[in-house]
Design a protein that fits this description.
Elements lengths: L9 E3 H6 L8 E5 L1 E7 L5 E7 L5 E4 L1 H14 L10 E6 L4 E5 L2 E5 L11 H6 L6 E11 L10 E4 L5 E7 L3 E8 L8 H12 L5 E10 L10
């Protein structure tokens, strides 16, 4: 921890204002401009840049952002323990009992925030409400670019999804994403997006990850 996660690292000003402490130490860029693109089914493209007097978005490297928040949480008095095996969850009347690493732990609440392959989800629900998306991202060093690009979202660039460019301290985070499990994304598609938008396909540290969706359709099985 912190683990790899598909995330461009964009933080809206609304989000920053809701944070209980400043995350300034891990912010690498802020922008007053945001590009919004749309690619229709016919292939027709539209792209515009919107600008405001104040900042609309700031950017952090997700791993550093997670590390910083983790350290702030522990400093506030939260205890942290990493376990290897969660094998059983019993939902009792007013508490939850877990079997982790062969021992029992009882708690009032359990939050299953363990990713797209969630063990918690598999142990407590049938998962019919669950669906997967996918994101793949990479980094383009500024040395490979002639200029720093405007941050952007490009909707429809991939089927049922979008592409993004998020400038950071020494690189641009480039990614494509779809919420549709039936759509396949590849490194070649990511390189094609970078070539189209940045005029280079020299990406480093390319990685792809599944994403979990469907929470809005989840129905509580027990009161």
């Amino acid at each position: 921890f912190p683990r790899m996660k598909p995330c461009g690292g964009g933080l809206t000003i609304k989000t920053l204002n809701l944070m209980p402490y400043s995350v300034g130490p891990v912010l690498e860029r802020a922008t007053t401009k945001l590009g919004m693109g749309v690619k229709g089914e016919s292939g027709r493209k539209r792209f515009e840049v919107f600008e405001t007097q104040g900042h609309v978005c700031a950017f952090a490297v997700r791993q550093e952002f997670d590390r910083f928040n983790f350290e702030q949480t522990v400093a506030a008095g939260v205890s942290f323990e990493q376990v290897k095996d969660l094998s059983e969850i019993d939902e009792l009347h007013n508490r939850v009992r877990l079997t982790v690493d062969g021992r029992k732990i009882t708690t009032r609440y359990l939050v299953g925030a363990d990713g797209a392959n969630s063990i918690v989800r598999k142990l407590v629900t049938k998962g019919s409400w669950f669906q997967r998306g996918f994101a793949i991202e990479g980094l383009v060093p500024y040395a490979a670019l002639g200029r720093e690009p405007v941050a952007e979202f490009y909707f429809g660039y991939v089927t049922n999804g979008y592409g993004w460019l998020f400038p950071k301290g020494d690189h641009v985070n480039v990614g494509i994403y779809t919420y549709d499990d039936n759509v396949s994304l590849s490194k070649d598609q990511l390189r094609a997006y970078a070539l189209d938008r940045l005029e280079t396909d020299k990406l480093e540290h390319i990685a792809g990850y599944p994403l979990g969706f469907g929470g809005r359709r989840y129905e509580i099985g027990r009161a």
